[in-house]
Amino acid sequence: MPILVARTPVTDRHRYDRATAHLDGPVAVVDLAAFDANAADLVRRAGGKPIRVASKSLRCRALLDRALAVDGFAGVMSFTLDESLWLARTGVRDVLLAYPSTDRAGYAELTGDQELAERVTVVLDDPAQLDLIDKARSGDAEVRVCLELDTALHLFGGRVRVGARRSPLRTPEELGAFAELVQRRAGFRVVGLMAYEGHVAGVGDRVPGRPVRSQVVRLMQSRARTELAERRAAVVRRLSQVTELEFVNGGGTGSVESTVAERAVTEVAAGSGLYQPQLFDNYRAFRGRPAALFGQPVVRRPGVGVVTVLGGGYPASGPTGPDRAPVPYLPPGLQYDPMEGAGEVQTPLIGPAADDLLIGDRVWFRHAKAGELCERFAELHLIEGDRIVRTVPTYRGEGKAFL
């Protein structure tokens, strides 16, 4: 009978080191047990409503397929038209392009292929986007359209805005008028509504060492959830006068529970929670397991309490700051030299753990965000226990650089 060993950061580090001992670094891995546990927890949190996988957070077809095979996940939320068409051609039957595109060649392909047009839905929020698509048309395939609702919270009479600057469509009247315009236009059909509340889904409400900030975030998010729930429901009622919606998409990893609680919402989007990057540690509602990591080899020992690893300067998108840098994770007790940070070619790390590391040993990092890690690596090594069970290409490894 096998002896079960409790999972701790120390045992995880030993597992990852043993699994990749035959590989030269840098290497990127995904712990399948953690990935699957995160998937199961997202399904639990979604309470029976389907989860659409955000492809930008995975950027690996094998892991998109693994998520979609879990009961409770359905469909993909993509980030470029080229990617959407590629996924649809390779077997994904329901792709929602969540960001407007000006890819004229892509729209020519979409409108000239009925099967692709049935699989791909595109987000639009401006009449000029309709004009661009019509100019690019190569056939009469009907374009499936999803409208996007601006979810930002406006405070103090609109003088303060909290939330991403995305769609210009905010009110039920604006959404309704645009839906009517789309419906009157030959070759287009409104089938869905998307509303991504990034100021709730993507902002942690439990920031370590920042109790006042955390409380302010919680107050803001409480107000934002109430305001958006009322406005989203009103928008859905208005759109129901124009067309029958197939889906109403909302939320993200950080807001699953509150988003699915709205009756108007039929599905939620999530992706980052499968990899559980560092920025998603700061939530009270859930605690995921780090699943995606990258290991950098120690190449120098400059002095007592210091080691240098190869590479590592993989910053995440968003406002520039320390929270966008990868986090030295295993072994515990390492941090950046504040004068150097994460370097383009090499990265010095300081701390008591450095003195136990030898040339060739590995330091494991967590990326600040999720799928952006895959733009740095051509393949992911999938780990079960202390062995690699499969090595799969990332988008980059398949020769795809969509953005």
Tally of domains: 2
- The average pLDDT value, as a whole number, equals 92
Radius of gyration: 23 Å
Name of the level-1 CATH class of the largest domain = Alpha Beta
Kindly report how far apart the N and C termini lie.
49 Å
| CATH T-level fold name of the largest domain | TIM Barrel
Question: How many individual helices?
Answer: 12
Report the strand count: 19
The CATH architecture name of the largest domain reads Alpha-Beta Barrel
What's the name of the CATH homologous superfamily of the largest domain? Alanine racemase
| Structural class computed from helices and strand pairing | alpha/beta
The largest β sheet comes out as:
9 strands, mixed
What does the overall shape look like?
Answer: globular
Q: Ranges with pLDDT <50 over ≥5 residues?
A: 1-5
Specify the helix fraction band: 25-40%
Strand content: 15-25%
Describe this structure in words.
With 403 residues, this protein is of the alpha/beta class. It has two domains: 9-26 and 291-398, Lyase, Ornithine Decarboxylase, Chain A, domain 1 (Beta Barrel), CATH 2.40.37.20; 32-275, TIM Barrel (Alpha-Beta Barrel). 31% of the residues lie in helices and 24% in strands. It contains twelve helices and 19 strands. Strands 1, 12, 13, 14, 15, 16, 17, 18 and 19 form a nine-stranded mixed β-sheet that branches. The protein has an eight-stranded parallel β-barrel with strand order 2-3-4-5-6-9-10-11, surrounded by five helices. A hairpin with a 2-residue loop joins strand 12 (292-303) and strand 13 (306-310). Helix 5 crosses helix 7 (127-136) and helix 8 packs across helix 10 (211-240). The longest helix is centred in the middle third of the chain and has 30 residues, at 211-240. The protein is globular and about 70 Å long. The termini are far apart. The relative contact order is 0.16. Residues 1-5 have low confidence and may be disordered.
